[in-house]
Amino acid sequence: MSQDAHYSDSFALRARGLVLEHLSNENFGVSELAEQLHMSRSSLLRNIKKETGQSASQFIRSIRLEEAAKLLKESSLTVSEVSYQVGFNSPSYFIRCFREEYGHPPGELSKIEIQNQESNQNLDTTEIPESFAENDPREKSRKAGKGLSKPSLLVLGTLFIVALLSYVFFGLVQKPHEDLEKSIAVLPFSNESTDSSNAYFVNGLMESTLNKLQKIAAFRVVSRTSTEQFRNSKLGAAAIGETLGVSYLVEGSGQRVGSKVRLTVQLIDAANDKPVWSEQYTRNLEDVFTLQNEVAAEIAKAIEVTISPKEQIQIDKQPTENLEAYDFYLQALEPFNWQTKEGLLKAIPLFKKAIEKDPEFALAHANTAIAYYYLDLYQRDKKHIDELNNYADKALLYDPKLTESLVAKALYYIQVEDFRLALPHLEKALEYNPNSFSVVQILSTLYAFNIPNTAKYLQYALKGLQLNKSLQDSIQRSYLLVHLSNAFLQAGFMDQSLKHIDKAIALYPENPYGPLLKTFVTQAIDGNSNRSRRLLKQELAKDTNRIEVLQELGTQYYYREDYDSAFYYFRKVVNQREALNLDLFKAENLKIAVVYERLGEQEQAQKLFRAYANFYQEDETVYQHFYEALDHFRKKEKEEGLKDLRAFAAKENYQYWIIVFLKADPILKEYQADQEYQEVRDLIVRRFWENQKRLEEDLQSKGLL
Fold first, then answer.
1. Which residues contact 493 (CB under 8 A, 6 or more apart)?
2. Residues 221 and 88 in one domain
3. What are phi and psi of 584, to 5 degrees?
């Protein structure tokens, strides 16, 4: 049946022909189609609905997607190339639309074709030792995780989480809501001032409008980072609304002239591209806070949303009464949101000027502390701990119920590695704001890598996605799904992990951590380390300085006992750590040291062995006895090693990778036939699967799984 068979009416056929004629033109939308058909927009909408049962924008999109499917099947074009050829200006948006239309991402078309042809690829895994997945009572027949190298605890920890938390602090949705009719996006305001340097002020008005609306629980407000892509876009309201998954858009323009503020704001029904409410304001500068409150109230009124008294108090709350302080604060926000070292260094002095003008400006204190945290994040020698602590304390002093104040103090404790003291601050923040996605994500990160607990990690990762299940921004959602996939993987839920990592990659193929994690997931399922090394090398080819990929390649070769190849990659890791003063992969120093020792680099090996010993002696996680046991086994101290391993066997909620390398690590090779070692090893394996079963039941009872 031809594609045209869907449309028996000549009008629909004619409209379809025009869409195909302008297929690659991303700006050819409803208005342009109406113009080509010589009819009004309303007439077009009515006719399309009558003939196809679709809205005009859905009609256009479905044609684009049909053509995309044909191109993907019949040509060698990439997904990105196809997306542009069929008129999508964003490959990630194209992937999401395609998935909604066909039930799978475009990249899986070829996979589905292969499956239909029953063509199976034979994987060479004969050289790889088996893992313990066969002990999973639910998967007796599956031989999962053969020869797996344990991905470095920090590979998808520090490096990935930094990227994720950047979204948390720099603009993620705070109060998602299921009701599409109450969903709203505040688009970047345009600066109408003749002085371009006033742009920061207009941007500040936009951000404050967004923040005010986020305090209204009945709204789902899309984040600033999601809307920034439309700053100079020529797309119509319908296309933007469809991209962001919202029913209303707020557009605005403003200028500051002397002591006056002029602001024009309009609320648009995205589906119909019609203004619902608009207003022009001219106010004195000292009335800027009242103006912001009034705009939020008018928007809520126009959408028929009731603001509760509690919400009104939060909306009316002024960050400061000092306009000069507020002006410096707005100037600081722009570079603060750049998410770069350069931006943070530019923002901090401006935040401090704001504090000079108003010493009780809690939000300025909190953001200064957060900026100092990020400046030190990768550094082995922390230079800003005192500043971070002082500004966090001041923020708490002046507003102990401000989420940013509590988060700032928690980040101080995280920075000094007193992780358990961070927990009460985060829990208090969650008590004040139960919908705070940022707090949930920090908690999940702590339980993933700092206070390791696979059960709580997965619980908070699931809660984070639940809070953002209506999140439309493909990049942000992709990072969330990588985070969740990693949590599932650590807890031994391989199928769930694969499902979520595939979703993450489909939403945002450029996510650097998606392909990296997928190598671990697929290797956990089928044990093919050959493929993992090949994929890791492909990732490294994109950026030869990616330290986490170098580390993992070294680890892969270490587990194969190919020490020459392992040394090639580990040496690059060590050189980068020293050159950039990075405090990474402390738990991996034992592997690196073993490789250096095998290659005759005795001095460096001993230095790394000492660093590893210092690390586990100070470690306070559930893995402390495990790390120490490995060192004893490495030194042929069997009894001491077994003692530590038995102590570790009493722990709970440890990672799946532990049970993998208990059999695969070359250090433990000579003990595999030892009866005492086998007993404690099998106990650890058995307890893992028992804990996983209890975790599964608990998450199901809470509605999280």
1. 458, 692, 696
2. no
3. -125, 155
533 with 681, same domain: the answer is: yes
Report helix, strand or coil for 630. helix
In the block, which residue shows the tokens 């020490």? 563
453-478 burial by CB neighbour count: b if 16+ within 10 A, else e?
A: bbbbbbbbbbbbbebbebbbbbbbbb
Residue 210 covered by a domain: yes
- Asked if residues 238 and 29 have their Cβ atoms less than 8 Å apart, the reply is yes
Contact present, 182 and 219 (Cβ < 8 Å): yes
Q: Can you give the residue range of the structural domain that contains 549?
A: 470-701
Can you tell me whether residue 110 is helix, strand or coil?
helix
DSSP state, residue 450: I
Whether the per-residue pLDDT at 219 is higher than 80: the answer is no
Report if pTM > 0.70: no
Q: Which helix (H) or strand (E) holds 263?
A: strand 260-269
* Residue that is last in its domain, among 269, 294, 318: 318
Q: Which two tokens stand for residue 135?
A: 């002990």
Report if residue 330 sits inside a domain.
no
Whether the CB-CB separation of 459 and 704 falls below 8 Å is answered with yes
Would you call 682 exposed, middle or buried from its count of C-beta atoms within 10 A (0-12, 13-18, 19+)? Answer: middle
CATH number of the domain at 697, please: 1.25.40.10
What's the structural domain count of the chain?
3
Q: Is 276 part of any domain?
A: yes
Q: What gap in Å lies between CA 276 and CA 305, rounded to an integer?
A: 14
pLDDT of residue 453: 87
Q: What is the token pair recorded at 16?
A: 């379809």
Is the predicted pLDDT of residue 129 greater than 50, yes or no? Answer: no
**Single-letter residue type at 480:** L
How far apart (Å, rounded) are the C-alpha atoms in residues 329 and 211?
15
> What is the tens place of the pLDDT at every residue in 404-460?
899 999 999 999 988 889 999 998 887 776 656 778 888 988 888 888 888 888 888
Q: Amino acid identity, residue 467?
A: L
Q: Under DSSP, is residue 472 helix (H, G, I), strand (E, B) or coil?
A: coil
Higher pLDDT, 174 or 314: 314
Measured CA to CA, the distance from residue 533 to residue 374 in angstroms comes to 32
CATH number of domain containing 66: 1.10.10.60
pLDDT value at position 340? Answer: 82
d(CA 624, CA 64): 56
Residues contacting 662, CB < 8 A, separation 6+: 132, 668, 681, 684, 685
Which of 297, 318, 339 corresponds to the end of one domain?
A: 318
Q: Which residues pair with 266 in a beta bridge?
A: 251, 278
Question: 454 vs 449, 464, 466, 689, CA distance in Å?
Answer: 9, 15, 18, 12
Of 1, 6, 107, 21, the C-alpha closest to 62 is 6
Residue-averaged pLDDT of the chain: 80
Q: 404 in a domain, yes or no? A: no
Q: Are residues 99 and 179 in the same domain?
A: no
Tens-place pLDDT, residues 374-408: 898 867 788 999 999 999 999 999 999 888 899 99
CA of residue 114 relative to chain centroid, distance: 31
